[in-house]
Amino acid sequence: LAVRTSTVMCCSKEEISSQKIPERRIQEYSYTSPSCTHKAALVKLRTGRTTCVDPEQSWFQQYLKKQKKPRSTSQ
């Protein structure tokens, strides 16, 4: 799916999905290199597949906010 050039992962405009991915399916994410033509987030799914998403999508922004919240500890 994504193009790998000398260990830099880039996504073409056509590969960047606008489809919402359920949070439970996301294993991890990273961002494409600044040297890439298109800014994208590389989302690794629990199935092992990696997909490119627009990091400005509202669902992805909400996902990021949830990831940054500190976990509350119950006593």
UniProtKB/TrEMBL annotation:
Alphabetized Gene3D superfamilies for the sequence = 2.40.50.40
One annotated Gene Ontology cellular component of this protein: extracellular space
Give GO MF terms, alphabetically. Answer: chemokine activity
- Residues of the Chemokine interleukin-8-like domain: 7-67
One Pfam match, given by its short name, reads IL8
Instruction: State the InterPro entries in the record.
Output: Chemokine_b/g/d (IPR039809), Chemokine_IL8-like_dom (IPR001811), Interleukin_8-like_sf (IPR036048)
- From its record, what is one biological process in GO terms? immune response
Keyword annotations of the record: Cytokine
Q: Which PANTHER family match?
A: SMALL INDUCIBLE CYTOKINE A
Question: What is this protein's name?
Answer: CCL18 protein
Organism, by scientific name, is Gymnorhina tibicen (Australian magpie)
